[in-house]
Every structure is written in structure tokens, then in C-alpha cells.
Amino acid sequence: AMLLCNEILGASPISKLFMKIREAMSLCYECSSVYNSARGAIIVTTGIDSDDFELCKDAISEQVGAMQRGDISDSEFIAAKKSVINVYSALKDSPSAIEKFYLGRVIHNVDSELANFIDKFNSLTKEDVVRCAKSLSLHTVYFLRGDGSVEEECDDE
Prior knowledge:
Elements: H1 2-11, H2 16-24, E1 28-36, E2 41-48, H3 53-68, H4 74-89, H5 95-107, H6 114-122, H7 126-134
Antiparallel strand pairs: 1-2
């Protein structure tokens, strides 16, 4: 369910972060999230103008809050589900992807059959996603700020 939660939040170009913060608000040139299942964390990354830091941080929090309140449209839910299922269905076309999938399942001690994973994923509901979203909280913010200066290197020879 957290994988689907992440997909809706920011893992694709149809996600809340991409559509609202990048496209509708034009706050950043990149805005996405990744789910780290080993740490149980969703990590959001953005590329922004440093003047927009607070506005972007607030906008990200608003999108997480929207998910926690159950503000997930049918089209967002269906598209995200199809996206993840397509990715996992395509694993069988890549030996290294199959190996990575099964290794991860063994490490986490969960059912290791790809077909079972897809079946379980297909049965997820919006309520499952909202439950996962409600478990999200801000942990750490890293902000790398450039000072706008340019350092040039030249060879005088």
C-alpha cells in the first residue's frame, strides 16, 4: 500500500507533486518522490529556486495532507495502480530485475511470488492508501542552496 501511496504522491508524471507543484504552481523544475521500503520512508526531492523554498515545502506538506484526508481522485488512484502493475508485470522481461525483485522479497521475508504480489497489489483500496498516508510525517529536510556565483577555470597556456 505504501508503494501505491508513493506512486500517487510523487513517483510519476501524473502524481500530485508533479501535477500540482511543478505543473500548476510552477514552483520547481523537478519534483518527485521515491519509496525506500527498507527504511519505510518516502523521500521527496525537488529542484527549486532558493527563494521558493518555504512555498515549495508548504505545498509538499499540503499534498501529503490532502492524501491523509483522502483527497485522492478515482483517476489518480486508477492511473497510479496501472502504472505500478505495468512496471511489475514487465519484470519478467529482465533477468536482473527479476533477481532484484526476488532478493528484496527474501530479505524482507515476504511472499516471494511475483504473481501473488500483483494480486495483492490489485486488491488495494483508496482506504489502504489513506491509512499509509496518515503514517507519514516530516522527518528531515535537506536544502542545498547555491550562492549564485560562478567559478570559472581556465588554462592560460
